Known about the structure:
Layout: H1 37-46, H2 52-69, H3 72-122
Subcellular location: Membrane
Protein name: Interferon-induced transmembrane protein 5
InterPro entries: CD225/Dispanin_fam, IFITM_antiviral_protein
Amino acid sequence: xxxxxxxxxxxxxxxxxxxxxxxxxxxxxxxxxxxxxxxxxxxxxxxxxxxxxxxxxxxxxxxxxxxxxxxxxxxxxxxxxxxxxxxxxxxxxxxxxxxxxxxxxxxxxxxxxxxxxxxxxxxxxxxxxxxxxx
Length: 134
């Protein structure tokens, strides 16, 4: 064993310049999944049909927890479920009131038509011919 080489004595002088850290981009790596937390909170506060916003909020929190823990695959699954429930909650919050408004408008139009026909029925005047009297 060669002990003549001074290993500890010779150290290169540390550079005071700060070099930028290299950026590594993986070709197959996908970005971290979104947790859709703000959308879930909005749907929870809006109190939509069947409390779908609350279910979406639960999956959003689970997705965020899994993302912080480093389990990207579980975070992706929970994120997908949260997005699905948020989509259903938003569609229900938009479609159901529009459907109810359309039913209300068609009902009012139908009732006004019936009222107009009943008024015309009761105001019908018989003709002045007295053929029945003879």
